[in-house]
Structure formats: structure tokens, C-alpha cells
Amino acid sequence: MSERSPDHPVDRLSPYLDGALSGEERERVARHLETCASCRDHLASLRALAAALAAEAPPPVPEGLAARVSAAVAGAKVVPMRRRLAVPVTIAATVAAAGLLVAYWWHETAPTIPPPSGLAASGREPAASAPVWESAGSEAAESERAQATKRLKSPGYVGGTAKEASAPPKPLSGDVANTSVERRALAHELFLKKKIAAGELRRSSASSTAPPAGISDEPSAAAPLAPLARSSASAAKYVPAPCTGLKKVVEPVATWDVGDMQVALRELASVAAGAGGHGDKTPVATGQPYEITVPKERFEDLRKRLEARGVANLPRKAPAAPDASCLLVRVSIRVVLGAP
Amino acid sequence: MTPSGRGILRPMQELDGPPRAADDPDAALVERARRAERGAFDALVARHTPRVWAVVWRIVRRREDAEDVVQETFLAAHRALGGFRGDAAFSTWLHRIAVSRALNHVGRAGERAMRAAVPLEGDGLEGTPRGVRAEVEAAAAAARANPTPLHALEARDLMRRLAACLDLLPPAWRAVLALRDVESLSYEEIAEFLTIALGTVRSRLARARAALKDCIEGKAA
Predict the structure, then answer these.
(1) Distance from CA of A285 to the nearest CA of B (A)
(2) Chain B residues with CB inside 8 Å of A285's CB?
(3) Helix, strand or coil for residue A278?
(4) Residues 35 to 64 of A: which have CB under 8 A from any B CB?
(5) Do the Cβ atoms of A221 and A184 come closer than 8 Å?
């Protein structure tokens, strides 16, 4: 470490460089610098360091990153429910393309039920309560997504190679799991749309049209799922949640007073998993709630588990949400001294 | 506030306007995205991916991790868009999510460093992520073998040592360095960004710079 004698205001040189010292302190440092070559050298080094940091260019944005992100967002389909309902039904009906409806239906019913019969390329009139798909995009967005799917399918990205399969297991996080679900959902959606466009998905053949290996949503298809997961460990641990469909946000936000944020986060993740859902890894920022997504029918189970842990202000019952297959329960964590 | 526009800095404010909500260049797109208009969020993604990538990479410093964090950032932003009130510019809000996600991503190493319990007298590298690349260690060793005052280093040598030493720093320290020296945020803004006290910003920056300087000069690893 550098010399830090009380005679040399070394620790104040950093805020001095930033102009973050008070007038008096600043004067004192400036006076010292006039007579101290060692501190001038130190300051020169800090200045060079700041310049070097600013000059260090990050690697170029990976090719197709924005497209992959857009695809993931489209696959996530988590537009806040109130927004979705606020959009006029007429627009909803126009925007929701037939292919997307099929994909939606598939997500809602997968993995237990085969695709619906009776949905031909022309599609049918969307229901009045049809959700708005923010992903129903322009041609440009479409091709961008197709490109993204291509990349998703490439071994380098999804880890379909033998090398990656044998890679050391990475700890499974909720986010990683979410991401692979979203990728699968997107890939399947595109697969179905392609089929519909090609006129392949019709009444007679619909139920027998299996998605290609690697993008199946079926939990029984262990082999196709494995390449999509980040590692064999995550493939083994992660049971595909059906919650890739629409979510309904449950009011109100529950509150939980805890002694340790990290312990609380781990606990919530385990509660979410226990109830057959999944949780965000951590809140986005302080004061934002932890979000748990559960299948609608598991809400009561989740509620009991949370209640048992002393979570307060829990929603009493699941809201009526005919469009949604999943519920989004939020728990605001407050770190309180002396709390368990 | 600190004076902006210094030569060594690349103020983010100058790149796309001041982060004020009133004249937020993204306002129209954000509003359309909030109405779930098609393509609007995609446009925001396309517009902001380079900057989000840059700040995330500077904290995470691993390409594949950075890609994941960028994706998480936009997913989180998309989820939270309904609650975005426009108090800050969209870019600032998004940036905050990105920094927070990046620090979350680096996990406990980041958390430990966030608590700023690392003593100045220590080697300054407690909480460093495991699995630091061999070439980084080699570069740091080379720096140690040839101690040189930082301001006397050749530019290329400096940049090589800088990269190696940054990889060794706790991510939370990389975050303050990125926000201050690259994004040119004021101490107040950094405090708000990272939800830490103003004094912590000052001390953490001083520690991060001291550790980085010592590492580059070959005085400590």
C-alpha cells in the first residue's frame, strides 16, 4: 500500500480528484500538493488511472444480443395484467395473431394436453378476452426473433454439445431456470408459428405434430430438455414449471420482517419451489418486492407456507383470473434489527 | 455535484442528454411500451443494449455472465415497466437495474464487498470471485515483478495491467469505479444508485482506487 502518513493526505486525493472535498479541505490538500512531490505523483497516478478506466473499452456487444433479449422478453410475456386489460378489446383482437393464440393455448395447457385440433392456418376469431401479445411484431421483429431462435438452437448458446453437457455444474438460480423456460417457450412458439405458416398444423395432424427435439415443453422428454439447461445439474434439479403463460399479479404486496436479507431470500426461493413455483433471485432494488410465480392452483399452498414463516399482509385468496395460469405473489422484505 | 465535461471522463449525460425525466428521449417509446404496443420495447432494447452491456461488463467482466445479466436487466425492466413513473429518465432507471442485477449476479463476493468491510490495510481483494483466469494471475505477477509508478507506465502496459487488476477487484468496487470514472456520475448519484451512504461512496472509491493503483504498480496483488 502507499505511504499513508498523517502528513500526506493520500486518502483525500481520490475525492480531491473528483472535486468532492469541502472548500476548506480542498484548500488544505491543494496547499500540500504545492510542496509535496510524492503526493503530486500519487495524484498523477490516480488521474492516469481514472483516464485509463474511462479509456478501457468493453468487448463489443455480442452479435445478436439485442435480438436475443427481445426474444426472451417476448417469451416471458409478463406484461403487467392491468396494462393488458387496459388495452381495448378491439386492438387485442387485431393484434393477437392466430399463431400466437395457438402458442398461448399450448403454453396454458402444456405439458399434459396435446395441441388443439381445429386450428387451421387461417386461425379462428380470437376470444374477446384475448390477451394482448406485445410480441406480435412486425416483419422485422419477426425475422429478428427467428434469427434469435437460430442462435438459441446453436450449441454455443444453449449448451447442446457434449463438451458443455460435461461442463462442471453451475449452481441453479431461479433466473437461470426462468431464462431456459423462456427460451423454450419462445422456441416452441416460433416452431408452432412456422408450422402454421407452412400449413402443417391442421385438425388431423395437430395432435401428432411433435415439437422438434430440443425445444419441447414436455417434462417427460428428459433428453430434449437437457441440452437447453445450463448444465446437467440444473436439468436434473429443475422441474419445468408450467408458469410460462400469463400471470396475474396478486394484491396486496405481503410484507416480511427479517433479520437477514440473504437468509430471507434463500427461504423465499425454497418456499416458492416447495409450492411448485419459482422466485426471482433477489429484488431488483431495495424496497422492491420479491416475486414468486406459482401455478394458480398452488396459490393456497404457497399462502400457507408463507404464513407459517410469519409473512404478513398476505392476500387472502387467489384473484379470479380466467386468462392467467399463474399468479405473481409479491413479498416486500424489510430488514429489521432483532427480527428472526 | 462534480464538474462535468472533464477531459478524462466520458459523461453519460453528454451522450444522450441529461437524465431528466421531463425531456427523456425515451419517454414516447416507454409510453408505447407501457401500452404494450408492439415493437416499442424491442426498440428500447435495441437502443439501450450497448450501454447496458458496457456497464454490466465492467462489473461482471465475463462475457457470458454479462450476456445473462443484460437479458435479466431487460426482463426485469419489462416486468417493472408498469411501475415506472418517469421520476428519473428511463436510461437512468434501466442503468440502475443493470448495476443492481450485475452485483446480484456476482453473488456473495459482491455482497461481502458491498458491506465495505474490507480493510484498507488488507490485500484489498477479499471477496474476489474464485476461478480468476490464469492469464490474469500471470499479468498481476508480471506487474509485481516489475514495479512501476502507474503514471510512468506505457499506455499499452498500463491497459494490460489495468485489465488484469480489475478482474481481481471485488465487483462492488468495480461498480463504483465504473459509475464514477466511466459514467461520470456524481458521488450523490452513485450513493442513490447503489443505495449506500455518501461517505461510503467516497471511502469505497478511495479504497478501490488505492487497491487498483497498488495492484497495477505491482505493490500488491
Answers:
(1) 7
(2) 96-97, 100, 195
(3) strand
(4) 41, 44-56, 58-59, 61-62
(5) no
- Whether the per-residue pLDDT at B135 is higher than 90: the answer is no
Q: How far is B22 from chain A (nearest CA, A)?
A: 23
Question: Considering the entire predicted model, what is its pTM?
Answer: 0.47
What is the separation of C-alpha B161 from the centre of its chain, rounded to a whole number of angstroms?
Answer: 19
The segment with the largest mean pLDDT, out of A144-148, A166-170, A213-217, B165-169, is: B165-169
Burial class (CB in 10 A: 0-12, 13-18, 19+), A85: middle
Determine the average pLDDT of the residues in A23-52: 92
C-alpha B187/C-alpha A316 separation (Å) is 44
Long-range contacts (CB closer than 8 Å, 24 or more residues apart) made by A146-153: A146/A190, A147/A64, A147/A67, A148/A64, A148/A67, A148/A68, A148/A70, A148/A71, A148/A186, A149/A71, A149/A186, A149/A187, A149/A190, A151/A64, A151/A67, A151/A68, A152/A68, A152/A71, A152/A183, A152/A186, A152/A187, A153/A187, A153/A214, A153/A215
Give the number of beta-carbon pairs within 8 Å between A and B. Answer: 187
Give CA separation, A83 vs A78, A111, A289, A294, B42, in Å: 10, 28, 19, 20, 17
Query: Which of B130, B68, B74, B78 is CA-nearest to residue B105?
Result: B68
Query: Could you tell me how far CA B88 lies from the centroid of its own chain?
Result: 19
Q: What distance, in Å, lies between the first and last C-alpha atoms of chain A?
A: 41
| Mean pLDDT computed over every residue of chain A | 61
Which residue's entry shows cell 461520470? B184
| Cβ <8 Å between B49 and A69 | yes
**Is the CB of A14 inside 8 Å of chain B's CB atoms?**
yes
- Residues facing A330 on adjacent strands: A291
Nearest chain A residue to B205 by CA distance is A14
Helices A23-35 + A37-55 axis angle, to 10: 110
φ and ψ at A240, to 5 degrees?
Answer: -55, 120
- Alpha-carbon gap: A62 to the closest alpha carbon of chain B (Å): 8
Place of cell 436475443: A68
Indicate the residue type of A340: P
Let me know: does B203 contact B87? Beta carbons within 8 Å: no
> Residue A124: what pLDDT?
36
